[in-house]
Structures
1.
Amino acid sequence: MIQYPRYRQHRFSSFQVIIAGFAAVDLVGALLLMLPIAAQQRCVTPFHEALFTSTSALCVTGLVVQDTGSYWSAFGQSVILLLIQIGGLGVITVGAAFALLSGRKISLKQRSTMQEATAAPQMGGIVRLTGFILRITALFELVGAALLLPTFCADYGLRGIWYALFHSISAFCNAGFDLLGTEGAKFVSLTQYAGDPLLTTVIAALIVFGGLGFLTWEDICTYRLNFHRYRMQSKVILVTTAFLLVLPTLYFYCFEFTAGSARQRILLSMFQSVTPRTAGFNTADLAAMGSTSQALMVVLMLLGGSPGSTAGGMKTTTFAVLLANMWATFRRREDAEFFGRRIDGSAVKNAATIAGMYLTLFFLGAFVIAAAEQLPMSVCLYETASAVATVGLTLGITPQLGILSQGVLIALMFLGRVGGLTLIYAAFGSSPAHSRLPQEKIAIG
């Protein structure tokens, strides 16, 4: 008997589902923003500008080609805020939330996709974790809005309620979108509140809290101040985050913001150390900062927040693992270590791969934009770091870029948000290969 080969029906991997979900929501958001009702002038927004804004909001970046406060109507701002919330939580998490609220059962395949989307260590308890993510997000955003309410209501009246909610969600989701621009003063971000300790502290705290990661918050809520019972990952995230907040603050205070009172300098230094990872708000004139400070902010942007958080970038754990591997190599140790635990070799390989991918996109994107726009490479590097790390900070060139350069930034924002390994596994498959080739040594260094 002749046996014919059986063809299996193609099944999408969880990584492909995540990317497809982001792309679909991105396109719907762009179409909604093209509607005349989305603009204050009731005009049809060009598709490339609507797609840029939709991608920036969904990827919680904050780069804009139109000032959010002066160009978009209440409807357009609501669409942007919804995209920010979906992007911050993740398309899969939002979809799972609707499924849970409707009483539908979550399949094993859906749980696997949710695990990848939330960077959870295991599939067990993923539904409970999703519920925790929704509760902790609502808590921080509502408390943040309540704390911002007095300032915005004092300045904008009843509109201040909308401003407080919008900026609280934008900050916790590390988006960086603001509504403070006017027709006469566009793209101002939070510069008018640079000396306001309440607003800058609340916004900075929301950015940090959103960037710590939901698994870290689960440890904090479960074990309180009992630090030694936290997951190793949570310990690494907290220590690395503290390191990346304190040292840049000291640098900015001593070398960048040297004028004004001590309180003003502390507020400016603290906020500019927080916002590059990866929020996009600013309280200082970034273009007026020194080249060394701008370079430091590029590094902070690329490092980003933590896995399973609302932030982007290479992630704090990637940075920490690479440093630990360097230290192990210096000491001629076989394995990298954290808190008395050995790091799996695959984590080191993944960290090196993610770092290499982000740096490649960062430099390649800047090269294309610099060639297309005839701009200095340093300015373009700042812009591409902001895009690929989904930060949203800019030296002011974004609105003047051509369609090609905007397309480059759109691609960088999308690729940066879905994540390095998600992109790689979706393109090349997530099933590990078990065959091994003959080994031969190669000189390194």
2.
Amino acid sequence: MSDELATTEETVSADGEYKMSVTAKIDEVGPCKKHVTVTVPRADIDHYYSESVSELGGQATVPGFRVGHVPTKLIEKRFRQELSDQVKQRVLMESLELIAEDNDLDPINEPTIDIESLEIPEDGEFTFEFEVEVRPDFKLPEYKGLKLERPAREIADKDVDEYLTRFLGQYGEMEERKGAAEKEDYLELSIKFEHDGKHLSEIAELVVPLRPVLRLHDAEITNFGELMTGVKTGDTRETEVEVSGEADQIEMRGEKVKALFTVKSVKFIQTPEINEELLERIGAESEEELREEVKNILERQLTYEQRQSTRSQVLDKITESADWDLPETLVSKQVENALRREILEMQQAGFSRQDIQARENELRQKAISTTRQALKEHFVLDKIATTENLEVQPSEIDMEIYYMAMQQGESPRRIRARMVKSGMIENLEAQLRERKAVDVILEKAEYTDVKMKPQEENKISAVARSVCSSFSASAAEEEETEEADEE
């Protein structure tokens, strides 16, 4: 399908600025992808050439002539290449802006144009082509008055006690386990992976808590707890693991791999007593204040869980009709971006690094399908935000950074600097805008409260490693590295 679209034939706009009269032939060449053929009349090229000669003539320094009095022919001869480059840049920039404006193109990425290979002819019109990914064109579904279930539960003293024990663990000392490994002990391991009897990869050193499941970027060892319970230093174990169907290494997707474990040591954390020294280290005035802060974190996590549940229902309902396809190149580019945004939400809710790592590894194992769905949700929410005239204020970004800094025990300045450096500040703004769109939907929804399932114990140990490669840095780990660099 193609359309021949032309701009107005007028050469001067209403505000007196020069307006080009380019034509554009636009073809659909794939999901959300357009092929555009642009034709620029000679009159437009001559206009920008004359402008460039005039501007250069007013600035150029040529021996024997005063600035501003160099003959036009000499300017054209001496600065031929500079003029050619300047005219090409102006023609491309102005024509692209005009085409996007007049033809209602809404690009997602920069158009693919090999600028270096383009040459404007000395005579006649100038034609160039490019492809560009654009936002999908769709009709918004009905998003007001949705019927939703809202999970609810009370935060009990028992919940505070359990979280406080886990929280204090990060201030405890590691001690050697003299007997067999127990649940939640820390195992220092080395792991070798073999495929069809050949060495595939190796993790030379790894320390993980003993839990039922070990989750890597591209696989899960679901019998890890059963396999490793009761091991002692020097023991070896082996098992089979299946590589994720969406692993980075395409040829390994779905393949069975043998994992061989060697236990280097077994340790446990001696939880410290709550005393003045520990409270000062944590930054709390008293044990009561510490417990109150823990309860605040749990309430924030509960809000996150409620929000995720209702958000999931909302997104399922408003994307039911989103049957349009997305280009694979766009999905691939956005995998890491979508991952970072999920991590950002969990950081804002005060989840631990281990919880965040577990979620990251889960997402990486089904990265393509997860990202494709996340992109569809983004486009629908973005359109709702535009329809509702929703914008994010700088003060709202400041407040989110403040909460994150408080939960992570850092200064807001350092959190902001790290987010700017990693590019996550843009993710935060987009995330807040989408959150506002979801809030509009939630404000107009009808709710039925349902009892939330009790929180399960943490069954997953997650590590920033892969079966198919010896090392892979996680988004969470990159943040730790950046943090260490700043210190």
3.
Amino acid sequence: MTQTFDAIVIGAGQAGPSLAGRLTAAGMQVALIERHLFGGTCVNTGCMPTKTLVASAYAAHLARRGAEYGIASEGPIGIDMQRVKARADTVSTNARTNVEKWLRGMDGLTVIKGHARFKGPDVVQVGESLLTAPRIFINVGGRANVPDMPGVDTVDYLTNTSILKLDTVPRHLIVIGGSYIGLEFAQMYRRFGAEVTVVEMAPRLIAREDEDVSEAVREILTDEGITVRPSAMCIGFKPHADGVAVDVDCTSGAPMVVGSHVLLAVGRRPNTDDLGLDQAGVAVDARGYIAVDDTLATNVAGIWALGDCNGRGAFTHTAYNDYEIAAANLLDGDSRRVSERLLGYALYIDPPLGRVGLTETEALKSGRKILVSKRPMTRVGRAIERGETKGFIKIVADADSKQILGAAVLGVTGDEVIHGILNMMNARAAYPTLQWAVPVHPTVSELIPTLLGDLQPVN
């Protein structure tokens, strides 16, 4: 017997639950299917547990620096990793429980636990049950990519999910991948007391960023005792009496590193390979991401894909924005497009990197006449007062239109400061509007008008 609904939502990540709320509020009967944990990556294995761990690592780092602030302490700082883990687990569990409670109490929503598979363009099977609806929304997220590197199947390794289960500090953590996820865990575990080596195939860390940003991040990490091994072109693994031996082919340094633990942080892949998408005729690209148009619709009428599984964004906030776009178009008579989205994001090392828009390199390649302004955090009063002066602020603008094209804030509260610039860009306001604002003192944001007044041509 087939159950009929007005809409089916597959996945309870960042987009699915809120969309279910809007659809049911519009009077629809909706089924939401979740096969594992409510809340998706962010709540369970992403933002919430990892940023909780980052906070614990920051507390340990600050405690070690107590003397710099005139705070006396006796003896070394101790790390109770079981309590650190328990704190992160509690944050995730509470959030997950609240999401599930909200959904199960939602009028007009039927919550189904199980693995959804398409049986046709408007039919989904969960266990022995068949569900049908004229509107189906896929919000199944992604998982860690495990590359086919030599010997990877002969050793034990960690991913961003399994590393959260650790309740002891590794003796030596080798992180494969010098980008956002890998660097956050690298600094975190260094602050917990582990020896840490970061192995990156590219010549520098976070290669999508400008070279000055990449170099500043490297200095931040190496100053804390993290070893960075770039240009590692022949990564391989084999068991070792002391854990895992990792082969690297670098421009300098030992050809092999031995660690107690290895974390693979080399990208993500979508959870689309076991949904029966072929049964519905839904197209995917070579990497398995569901192909969508500018409104998040797939090639099959009545099916949309939201969040990480569509390859149009890899963040909690882009997944949520996918929900907003879908709801606005379907329920509000609006016309919103993914291509209109202004992407901001952050790297949560300490100090954090806040980013929005084009890098300086990208802006130069675009052929525009550009203006650039840059100021080190050593000249920012708030950073000096806090004793956290690493990093810099950089703004890139279009000389002709006077539009801000992008910015990087690598420094204390950089992940918050970036929003003032993001908001100006989103409003498409010319930079003099922000230049003549009167910001609050003493803050990091107060330097933004000063930087705008110092914009200089670079081409």
4.
Amino acid sequence: MSDQQGFSPRERRASFTLASIFGMRMLGLFMIMPVFALYGSGLEGYSPLWVGIAIGAYGLTQAVLQIPAGWLSDRIGRKPVIYAGLALFAAGSVVAALSDSVYGVVIGRVLQGSGAIAGAILALAADITREENRTKAMAIIGVCIGLSFAAAMVAGPLLASWFGLSGVFWSTALLALVGIVMVRLMLPDSVSKGQIRDVTAAPELFGRLLKDPQLLRLDFGIMLLHMTLTAVFVAFPLSLKDAGLVAEHHWWLYLPALGLSFVLIIPFLILGARRNMNKLLFQASILVMMMALVLMALGQGQLWLLALAMVLYFTAFNFMEASLPAFLSMLAPAGGKGTAMGIYSTSQFFGAFLGGVLGGLLFQQLGGPGVFLLVALTMVLWFWLSAGMANVSRVRSHILPIGGNIESESARSQLLQRLMALPGVHEALIIPDESAAYLKVDGNIFELDQAKRLINL
């Protein structure tokens, strides 16, 4: 396969290295979730509320710093921001590992979250890859994030049973150091291209996108999704323990439940794309998640029922986790994908923090069943809001370099008119500072080669 058709060796190495670094960092953030409620009981200040805060604390600093860190990488370069973020993540892991109180663990988690490198990693991937390969690079990173969550559900319980809670945090520190070495030795040097609107946020677009009801539904949805995740894992490990599954064997349930959920969502993802049923299947997933949460509440002391609930929960979670970014990509305006994704990611991490706090408060007052039932009620609100979702399908984004064809305002206006006249083009935007045209198109009709020929006239 030629470089024009697929990854060059440089692009391939960079994409898989960045995906690995991103995945290792997410693995480190997630590993505490299935174990802290069980293994943190010996820490000073332990309580359900502080369990929830410790699990979700990373989300607060991650939410606050996500977009600024991306902007900073535009100015000082991608690698310095990635180095600093991984160093902060390692420092937070060490603080948590050395702590004998839950408060120290919370401080460590806050530090871990402050290493917000997602924007810099995505921007570096965009710098290093050509536009025709950028989507594949982002997909590789996305797959690695999903795999890191699955690995965390297994690795967390195993490491905690072998080395204790501090061993989990020492492992995350080691992962961060490995990431720093990978950046140094395996990532090619690149000249930052500055702002690339498909991966970094543009301040002037915030007001517009925060008023878009379709994008706000997605932002609210990802916030709720990750709120349920952290809230569930405040209580669910204790439910498993009460049902007779010892802590070191919890991965026996998580691993097959996750594996089965990945198998179950594949036909539905394919069906949604081919039959234009994305909205219907998404709404069905909300109902499945609500059912899973109710089963968790009813299944106290019954391991088989808790196992069934977790299969349903992971199936719904993974389907929605895969679908929401795809919807956002299709709905974001031309040249606004990076900004939309920045708002979306901020909502996601804030949801993780909110879920930890609410889960801890609810568990303290109502116990595990109360957590599951009240979180299930939020699914009713989400289902109601999802009724207004657009049923989007086959909408694609493209960035095309346009070189010297935009030297004057009249030349830009004429080129924009010609691009908008192409079959399948919904939106077109020319950014002179980037020498690029951003297109939003119908993938069933639009012909990329035709647009390239027009631009090169």
